Amino acid sequence: MARIAREEMKKRLAVYFIMGSQNSERPAVDVLKEALDGGVTLFQFREKGAGALQGAEKEALARQLQRLCRAHGVPLIVNDDVELAIAIDADGVHVGQDDEDARRVREKIGDKILGVSAHNVEEARAAIEAGADYIGVGPIYPTRSKEDANEAQGPEILRSLREQGIAIPIVAIGGITVDNAQAVIEAGADGVSVISAIASASEPKAVAAALAAAVQAARSR
Ligand SMILES: Cc1ncc(COP(=O)(O)OP(=O)(O)O)c(N)n1
Ligand SMILES: Cc1nc(C(=O)O)sc1CCOP(=O)(O)O
Ligand SMILES: [Mg+2]
């Protein structure tokens, strides 16, 4: 298997849904099934925070969600837990600045997809050097889904990274909804990453479809 090509990565980032069992009152499997039917293009398993599953239960849920993703041809990325990603043969891993060193993660996961969080141009350059396939930039807008989130930076951070020559695929994250998705793509992101917009929706399929349409509309401008 070879590293994912840049253009393929950009396409995959279009509607990047992140979820763990703690993000919805409904079973995660049901929410993900509907979201995939709506057009989610990439999924991150992020089992984290109060009430998060651990150990064998966490791995069992990851494998359940992975079966769904595979049935839809959508890659599954594991958040933080590199050993779990390797154990279940996930498609990739996402790590932040306080997680395992990205260069070390690249060594461990070979050609799997590597996503790294970056909040400024220095972190973006370091992520590229470490072998990231994409960077997650946020929070763009205020979020209630991450306890230790930084201050919201607005879409200007995306424009600024592009102006400073950062060409790696970028997914924007934090407070993104159907209403502001076009603005972040126009500012330079290749896709949008969301938790609550889909996980808390009464109709995840409809929201995923609306996000896909918004990204597509902004891309074709
Ligand atoms: C796509 C994407 N972007 C950013 C993050 C945040 O990662 P991190 O800063 O490590 O925070 P946690 O998600 O681990 O709490 C992400 N998970 N995904
Ligand atoms: C997981 C995560 N990382 C962020 C960052 O800024 O790095 S913001 C965030 C939570 C995104 O959830 P919502 O779509 O509900 O705002
Ligand atoms: Mg992390």
UniProtKB/TrEMBL annotation:
GO molecular function, one term: thiamine-phosphate diphosphorylase activity
EC number: 2.5.1.3
Protein name per Swiss-Prot or TrEMBL: Thiamine-phosphate synthase
Record pathway: Cofactor biosynthesis; thiamine diphosphate biosynthesis; thiamine phosphate from 4-amino-2-methyl-5-diphosphomethylpyrimidine and 4-methyl-5-(2-phosphoethyl)-thiazole: step 1/1
Keyword Transferase part of the UniProt annotation: yes
Catalytic reactions on record: 4-methyl-5-(2-phosphooxyethyl)-thiazole + 4-amino-2-methyl-5-(diphosphooxymethyl)pyrimidine + H(+) = thiamine phosphate + diphosphate; 2-[(2R,5Z)-2-carboxy-4-methylthiazol-5(2H)-ylidene]ethyl phosphate + 4-amino-2-methyl-5-(diphosphooxymethyl)pyrimidine + 2 H(+) = thiamine phosphate + CO2 + diphosphate; 2-(2-carboxy-4-methylthiazol-5-yl)ethyl phosphate + 4-amino-2-methyl-5-(diphosphooxymethyl)pyrimidine + 2 H(+) = thiamine phosphate + CO2 + diphosphate
Binding site for 2-[(2R,5Z)-2-carboxy-4-methylthiazol-5(2H)-ylidene]ethyl phosphate: 143-145, 175, 195-196
Function: Condenses 4-methyl-5-(beta-hydroxyethyl)thiazole monophosphate (THZ-P) and 2-methyl-4-amino-5-hydroxymethyl pyrimidine pyrophosphate (HMP-PP) to form thiamine monophosphate (TMP).
Family named by the database record: Belongs to the thiamine-phosphate synthase family.
Pfam families: TMP-TENI
NCBIfam families: thiE (TIGR00693)
Residues annotated for Mg(2+) binding in this entry: 80, 99
Cofactor: Mg(2+)
Every Thiamine phosphate synthase/TenI domain range: 15-198
Binding-site list for 4-amino-2-methyl-5-(diphosphooxymethyl)pyrimidine: 44-48, 79, 117, 146
InterPro entries, per the entry: Aldolase_TIM (IPR013785), ThiamineP_synth_sf (IPR036206), ThiamineP_synth_TenI (IPR022998), TMP_synthase (IPR034291)
Gene3D superfamilies per UniProt: Aldolase class I (3.20.20.70)
Cofactor binding notes: Binds 1 Mg(2+) ion per subunit.
Enzyme class: transferase
Keywords (A to Z) from UniProt: Magnesium, Metal-binding, Thiamine biosynthesis, Transferase
